[in-house]
Here is the input.
Amino acid sequence: MTVGGSDSLAALLADKGVLPAGWRPVFEWVARGEFVPDRVWPEDGDVVDRRRDPEAWRAAVYSDRALVTQWDDGRHAGEGAGRLATSSASAPSTVAEMLFDLDAHPGMRVLEIGTGTGYSAALLAARGCDVVSVEIDPDLADQARANLARAGYGDAVRVVTGDGVLGDPDAGSYDRVQVTAGVRRIPAAWIEQARPGTVIVMPWGTDFTTGDCALRLVVDEDGRGASGPFTMATAFMKLRRQRPDRHHYGAASMPGDWAETAAVSTTALGWDDVVAGPFDPVGFVLGLRVPDCLAQPVPDGHGGGTLWLHAADTGHGHSTAAAGFAHGHTPNVLQSGPRHLWDEVEAAWYWWDGQGRPTVHDFGLTATITTTADTALVEQLAWYRDRNHPLAPAVHDEHPAGAAH
Ligand SMILES: C[S@@+](CC[C@H](N)C(=O)[O-])C[C@H]1O[C@@H](n2cnc3c(N)ncnc32)[C@H](O)[C@@H]1O
Here is the structure.
């Protein structure tokens, strides 16, 4: 018996209500199985190998699951999971929802960043778009080219091996830009290579969490900026040059006398207030209002733990905070450096709570190209409700408990 097929995947997505109008035949034509390698790691399970268990492989391929296809930039071998998942076939419902945001129509020129297996590029080609897709990993790019040629989309998709942060190295002009790797800093090239009115869809986030939110930007008339809302919580592998090294932070990296020299306080907040699941809005919103802060939760296995906060040296030294939440004990907060990061987090949390705990849909971002002598940089300004209300960094005095500290 066989299970699944591209038509059943289309039906599954239609049942979930995530298939954009006009895309059902596209999901029926393009077989995900033509793009997924023989060995994959489903997001919620162990390795599945087609050669050993073709039915399990087919069930995984025609399910709504993300399938990891590469670990550790290809350096990992073997059956077990590697340290960092670095390429995947994204969950089909995520692919469909991002295509809904992208709103690509036949005849459009589409730039994709993060070719991976080539599946999403094939969907765009089957929709009638002219696609250039950029993949940083040469082996994955070769494999995607082979997959696309075998599936009949070799002419409609040009796969470029290179760093997608630079966009199309031939500097094309695009009607749509789709990014399928997590972004922390939007590169100017994506705006520069888009026409006014172009939709740019990307998973965007801050280093406060490992998650992202889909961001739908529309390029301004003057072509120098783009703005739009966040549309859903998600989580993608990050652009190679924008991955923070989370293993570098925590108690082990602090000087031995740190706890004695740091300022000590406590807090009325609890572990569950500030450390939530990957798709919970709180971490995302805290990241928007506490800029340039890497948060590293270290659970203690008993419903609490320590939330480490780090901000890089911008001329006055590093800032670090550790908020410890142990069951049955008063929370213990240590802070050092020019920024009192826990106070900023607390202020941002009380602001979010006071606003009625808005979700990610209430926020958006404006990206504006700012040019220096020879470099185009992008200023990213998050906003609340509309682009005329940019979010300022949280300050300690904002929250009602501020006076008590
Ligand atoms: C989630 S996967 C993409 C899924 C893909 N769209 C598909 O349909 O299979 C993310 C991909 O982005 C690639 N990537 C990461 N950083 C990149 C960069 N700077 N430029 C281009 N590709 C990059 C990774 O190698 C990985 O293959």
Q: What stands out?
A: The first strand starts at residue 39 and ends at 42. The chain is about 25% helix and 30% strand.
